[in-house]
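Appendix B. Raw example, untouched.
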Amino acid sequence: MTRKLTFALAALLACAPVGVAQQQKSPAPDGAAAKKTKKKEAPAEADPMAEIRRTTAISLVSSLANDAQTFRDPVLRARVQARSADALWETDQERARTLFRRAWSEAESADAESDKRIQEEKERQIRERGSFSYAVPPSMRTEVLRLAAKRDRALGEEFLTRLDEARKREADEAAARVAEAEKQSRPKMPEETLTVPPALEKRLRLAIQLLEDGNTERAVQFADPALGEITTTALEFLTRLRAKDPKAADERYAAMVMRAAADPSSDPNTASLLSSYLFTPALYVTFSRNAGSSMNSWGNQPAPSDVSPQLRAAYFRVAASILLKPTPTPDQDRTTSGRAGWYMVIARLLPLFDQYAPDTSAALRAKMASLQADTPEGNRQPGNRALTHGLVPEDPNRDRVQESLKRLDNAKTSADRDAIYVDVVFNAVRQKDPRLEEFLNKIEDVDLRQRVRAYIDFEAAQRAVRDPETLNEALRLARGTTLTAIQRTWVTTEVAKQLVKKEPGRAAELLDEALREAREHIDPASPERVGALVAIATQLVELDRPRAWEVMLDVIKASNSAPAYTGEDGRLTNQLRTKNMTTMSTNSAESFDLAGVFTSLAREDMSRAVELARGFEGEAPRAVATLAIARTALEKK
């Protein structure tokens, strides 16, 4: 079908100029008639092929939507049909509604399959290593719902009703899981204090999305079944809900606090997580058995100023009852924090108790004293940021570097010293301390030193590409040895992007440099290589259009060698894991995605862009490219 459409479009485009040329040879009318004729003909002269491109685009999208029914990936089947429906809405609403409903059915299957796969992977990891970690994929029903509701409110309500029915089933299944866990007396894993079963996690994400879309009542309905456990996502929902309906949010938080009081598995990390709603709304801090910290943040939210004294007092009563529980012996300890993490939670929350519930402060200090011997001395020092972050305003005159350096006096091993120097390095970055390089070289573990250097160098490079005054610094880092090949390529293309208009010659040289990096140092079978080439082609569109078309041929070849490449959701992740900390930043990299470059190329030559898109063997990149091409003709200017 696509091949026939491409041939027809090419034929039409080839024939069109003849008609235009013949019109130009006709005698030009004069006087008022000439002005009138000119006024009428202006739209046709502006874009005589618009209707042809529009007809072709409709055929392309319709064909793609039909093909999507045979795609191997259920997520892709749902996504492509929903996006096709959205693209066709202005042209054929009945056809679009049919596609939306078809997409919804596929999304239900995709979500069910995804949840099952995650559960199986979770069970496998627990069997093999005693813990688990996973990233919950986005809910396809949420994606389809948002597109459909934007176009047709009634259709959105239909899908919401079907979701509500599923919500009740999931709530029953969640209750059954809890009952089974209690029956087996299985202790919670540390990760379970931060996550919920995939189905409920997706439900909370949908509820947050509904809140952002202004549908607060529906959001609450969908979130309620997932608020039974104290997790970061549940607390995030309550914080977002409080901005729209404080009474409803506070009531649900109060119920959560009461459940924590009655739950025998509640532990110090439970108390720490619950504190976030009142004092650090967008920051969640927990501690591990070795006193290491985990800080999870989704934004910058001030602590609410209108919390009732009764609600605050209820939290401190429950938190105290949890933190003052008898400490189990090591062989019976089922807490997520362990004894060392227990100490750290009390140390973090103690200033809040001193301010709001001083009657329990003495008992908490005694509890800390009993746990002190089990807690590494370096973690107990006042300079540990995890103990104050979000609770104590940053003092601009505070010298955190010096505070961290003082902890070296109590370090007993090289590993302890290295952990302190990692803190020193991060504080030096924040304070722009000129001794940064000196501190880095003090880290004795060579591998750790290299990983820390790589992390801070890429963070610095990302900051540098945003400022026209520091582009040379970004290039210096990109040409060093610490960044990965994909990071070097991204930095170089981003610098070239800023230089396209001011220094086109230099921008071209940088894109050549990035192209060599991608071809020589990125695995040919890696999605990263495809993304790097797309980023280069994206910048070449404005600088050297013929060259952009050439590089796109490399993109097709690389994509066909990298089955995992989807053509969208480009990301750059920078992560550092040490014994005592984990820090990670993830940023979108839109220049890695196909939609932008195909949109630009289709505006120049739609027929050629269609032919190029046909070269993708992967269903996902071909669909992304085809929809981008079609939208250039279908979307209203």
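End of appendix B.
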